[in-house]
Write a structure and sequence with these properties.
Shape: globular
Order of helices and strands: HHEHEHEHEHEHHEHEEHEHEHEEHEHEH
Helix content: 25-40%
Strand content: 15-25%
Bound molecules: adenosine monophosphate
CATH superfamily of the largest domain: P-loop containing nucleotide triphosphate hydrolases
Radius of gyration: 22 Å
CATH architecture of the largest domain: 3-Layer(aba) Sandwich
Distance between the termini: 48 Å
């Protein structure tokens, strides 16, 4: 099915072709026609399914068909949960918009960097703004931006927007928008908070849930290796040197662990960088750019990198520390096997995290065979006394109420 059969005009179909998209993905085929009809959308799609282009193509088409005003008035607002996702969506939209006959100004704003250049960029207005909620409100407070003409609102990764504690900021932003507008809400998961947000926001939405088609289903091979917690760095080093992965994204539980593990890998002669929220925004951007350009082989990250980040041809993700929840597991492993490529997601499981991994398997309906690597066979048979937690052997973290409940459930099952 060609893009043009979805109601996209030739300019937008060409924009998709220029990006190398031969045909629409399932989510694109499902949401582009109702978006073009002006309907609200409640969309559930797997990460890596082509969601960004699914809302960008019809949104840009609609804006390009409207008569421009001088100065430009902000007509489309895209809210995203992280700085990296804002930058990524901005880049992708600008790529799609560059061949349009009428030029659209697409602005990107996120926190952690100086607000001044972002304010300067808004002189003369903008047609589209992609922003994290806090910085958007700062810009409004500085009178750099008005939201009163917004006719299209996109909430990308709505579940993440809410669980990063953006609920108050979202409420403030929604109150500044005109009541008459089109709302597009996308979320990988639908916890209660997202459902109630959706109910309050959407008018008779087209509900779209897309099961990934085989051609684009991420072919992710899930593996689990049993190893003692204290030997994980050595095992990681061994795997990086022997598995032939061009690049690896390693997830750890804390910023401190990200620093330590990256440092140890570097000392072993492996190009590795940490990636977490305490780094400056400049450093974060640079690490991702180096990773994408293959200048860095291993990135050791906290869950900050678990959502939205799109690194084409990322062959492997390693859970050095297990994620806290089954939902985070899905997001982490979704970093590999993107856009139809294959990938491996490998979890380290030690005596103190075995019960937690079993719980993740149970929640996801998985049964991942346990492997051992010669020379790294575990000798610990039960959790060391210092780590009575169920959160993946995360040192120095006291178990939360939820963790305790999980542990009780795990030991009962
Ligand atoms: P997203 O889910 O928006 O993060 O997109 C995941 C990846 O799929 C990105 O690298 C896109 O460039 C790519 N992509 C989006 N739409 C298509 C398409 N129709 N055909 C092939 N790749 C696509």
């Amino acid at each position: 099915m060609p893009f043009s059969s979805l109601g996209l005009d030739p300019a937008m179909a060409r924009a998709a072709a220029n990006k190398g998209y031969a045909a629409p993905t399932a989510i694109q085929a499902a949401v582009i026609p109702p978006i073009l009809q002006g309907r609200d959308i409640l969309g559930a799609a797997q990460t890596g399914s082509g969601k960004t282009a699914a809302f960008s193509l019809p949104l840009l088409q609609r804006l390009a068909s409207e008569r421009p005003t001088a100065p430009r008035r902000l007509r489309a607002l895209i809210l995203v949960p992280t700085r990296e996702l804002a930058a990524q969506v901005g880049e992708s939209m600008r790529g799609l918009a560059q061949h349009l006959a009428s030029s659209l100004k697409i602005a990107v704003a996120f926190g952690g960097v100086s607000i001044n250049p972002q304010m300067m960029a808004l002189r003369g207005g903008a047609d589209v703004m992609i922003a994290t909620p806090g910085r958007l409100l700062d810009l409004v407070d500085h009178r750099a931006l008005k939201l009163s003409a917004v006719s299209m609102l996109v909430l990308d990764e709505a579940d993440r927007l809410l669980d990063l504690g953006f609920a108050d900021e979202l409420g403030r932003i929604l109150a500044l928008l005109p009541a008459q507008r089109q709302n597009l809400l996308f979320s990988a998961t639908f916890p209660a908070a997202v459902r109630s947000l959706a109910e309050g926001l959407l008018r008779e939405p087209a509900r779209v849930e897309v099961q990934a088609e085989p051609a684009e289903a991420p072919a992710i091979l899930q593996r689990a290796i049993e190893v003692d917690a204290g030997r994980r760095t050595q095992l990681l080093r061994h795997l990086v040197q022997h598995e032939g992965w061009a690049r690896v994204l390693v997830f750890v539980a804390t910023k401190h662990a990200a620093e330590i593990v990256a440092d140890k890998l570097r000392k072993a002669g492996i190009d590795a960088e940490p990636f977490h929220g305490v780094l400056s925004q400049g450093k974060r951007t640079q690490v991702l750019a180096d990773f994408k350009a293959s200048r860095v082989k291993v990135v050791v990250a906290t869950d900050l990198a678990a959502r939205g980040i799109d690194v084409v041809q990322l062959p492997a993700v390693v859970n050095y520390d297990l994620p806290r929840s089954a939902v985070d597991y899905v997001h982490r492993i979704g970093r590999t096997g993107r856009a139809g490529e294959s990938g491996v997601a490998l979890s380290f499981v030690s005596a103190d995290s075995e019960a937690h991994f079993r719980l993740i398997e149970k929640r996801q309906g998985l049964n991942v065979p346990r492997e051992r690597v010669a020379g790294f066979e575990p000798v610990e048979t039960q959790a060391p006394a210092r780590a009575p937690d169920s959160n993946g052997g995360v040192k120095g973290k006291r178990p939360s109420k939820k963790d305790k409940l999980r542990a009780a459930k795990a030991s009962a099952s």
